[in-house]
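Case study 2.
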Amino acid sequence: MAEILVLAEHTGGEVKKVTCELLTLARRFGEPTVVWAGPGAEAGRERCAQFGAARIYAAGDAGFADYVVAPVAELLAQLVREKAPALVLVAGTAEGKEIAARLAVKTDSGIITDATDLTPGDDGAPVAEQPIFGGSTIVHSRVRRGTPVVAVRPNSVPPQPAPGAAEVTPVSLAAAMDGARITGRVVAERGERPELTEASIVVSGGRGTGGAEGFGLIERLADALGAAVGASRAVTDAGWYPHQFQVGQTGKTVSPQLYMAIGISGAIQHRAGMQTAKTIVAVNKDPEAPIFELADFGIVGDLFKVVPQLLDEIDRRKRL
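Prediction:
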């Protein structure tokens, strides 16, 4: 069975959800093998095994954390030359796409980015689905040269468990680590809300909130539902909420079980980042707002009247 390399996204020993999504995709094409750069492979082994990883190539040198992407790309290139995998999958994050691009150059291979699905073609080779022009058009692409390198958007594919051995095999980087070096880190403060890209419920606010003060209502609703907070580009550009919470084509891509768009008109750029949500609820006072074309449930009304009623009902049901 062909070997499929999956670059693990992790924080220490905590495996991120997107890695489980990539393992789910990898099983369609062969035997999934995780590539783990940095320490923590043993801690992440159980999670990788849960989603079908046959083995883990663990390069445990702590120095991977001291450099920006270059050593990881070199490690993948080394494994591609040694193992001749049928496919390499990485997360379509900013860092992941840079690693993928460097890997493609090093191995003289084709690359596909922003894939939202991956299926075997008639000859068994991977065919990627890619939304373009803000999601208004879907294209199908395939690599014609070298080892296919594909960067997959997070939250595009539901992770599906399947048992695997996940045997840890130590590997080492033959080349010296070099490139841009990290000289300092600042840990972002995190509250009790779930991470935006991994949350099962997301409540997003738009221009209709009217300002930073009005956006507080979005936070209250999110906290009542145990949800993550998102925002439209209009909100983050106006400085009402931090940019790292932007959902859309130029922000984060989310695919929760429930997405609530509050005061968001539904421009195509925003829809590109949330249209794969399982259930979409929209609240907007404009009955012609484009978001209603996508919504499963729509409420035409003033969010400052609708959301307090939602909060009251949620509170009532919690007390039952």
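The chain has two domains: 3-170, 196-319.
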